[in-house]
Amino acid sequence: MLREQQMKTSYWVVAACLAATTSGFADEFRPIEIKDQELAELRGRYVMPGRIISFGVVMSSTWRNASGDLIGASTSMQLQAETVKPEFYVSTIKHNGKGGSPNSGTGHVTGGAGLSTSQGITQVTRAAGDGNSSNNKIAINVKEASTAPAPVPSRGQALIAGQTITGSNAAGSVAVSATGGGVQVAITANNNQGSSLQQIAQGGLLQDTRLLGNSNVVNNMTRLNVVLDNKSPRAGGLGYNLNQLAALRTLGY
In what order do the strands lie in the sheet with 194-201? Predict the structure, then answer.
């Protein structure tokens, strides 16, 4: 059985949030001329400069095999005015099951070479086994506040550019790396059960799961947390931006 599902939307969600977060804290809003080509890429959705007072990303990937063994990792980053150097912090996730090893997977999945170069949001599940469960989820939480929330205490190990943080157990191995201007969480399950990849980089978000064995449970989750300033006298403009973001809900994102 082969099933593939791919969902894409404009890359503004990641690119606009990251750009606005790192550039809009110090200066008041000033009108900026935008070229026609840039306007065409916006497609009517945007976040005003200086409106974002806090932006965070949380990524989590886990794989549980038929024996109950669990492997995975969670990584998070939060940006706000006092942030000196944005950093992702990584925690590996491990749990031992009931013992024993599941039967080796015999499925085979082909194709998918272009998934890593796609733009926007791409979610794919390809299954060549039975009794599997795969969840690729994205959450975008946008709210208004007069002040930025208190910084979340850093948990885990700081991820340095070019570095890879790894972990392994009976379920398989996980590797979290900072490459290509972004972050990726890759899991390779033991006994040819399959693999999963979740990455955010270069304006794109990818969640890709390959299931080759049976009775596996895979979860990929990315959550974007955005806090917009509600103290600005341009409240009407702020509300308009919130309406633009809320429109994503009707599309299922």
Answer: 120-127, 204-211, 194-201, 182-189, 172-179, 164-169
The alpha carbon dihedral of 40, 41, 44, 48 has a sign of negative
Smallest CA-to-CA distance from 243 within 22, 44, 53 is with 44
Residue 138's beta-bridge partner residues? 222
Place of tokens 């998070």: 76
Instruction: Compute φ and ψ for 36, nearest 5 degrees.
Output: -60, -40
- 8 Å CB contact between 188 and 209: no
CA distances (Å), origin 236, targets 14, 113, 243: 24, 45, 11
Handedness of CA 52, 87, 224, 177 (dihedral sign): positive
- pLDDT of 143-166, one tens digit each? 888 888 777 777 889 998 889 999
Which of 47, 43, 62 is closest to 218 using CA atoms? Answer: 62
Contact assessment for residue 229 and residue 144, using Cβ atoms and an 8 Å cutoff: yes
Amino acid letter, 219: N
pLDDT tens by residue, 166-179: 999 999 999 999 87
Pick the range with the lowest mean pLDDT from 8-22, 26-40, 70-84, 95-109: 8-22
Q: What is the pLDDT of residues 116-137, one digit of tens each?
A: 777 788 999 999 999 999 999 9
| Residue 12 DSSP label | H
Q: Rounded to an integer, what distance in angstroms lies between the CA atom of residue 8 and that of residue 17?
A: 17
Nearest to 232 by CA among 144, 151, 149, 150: 144
Non-local CB neighbours of 174 within 8 Å, separated by 6+ positions: 61, 63, 71, 72, 73, 92, 93, 166, 167, 168, 185, 186, 187, 188
Beta bridge partners of 210: 126, 195
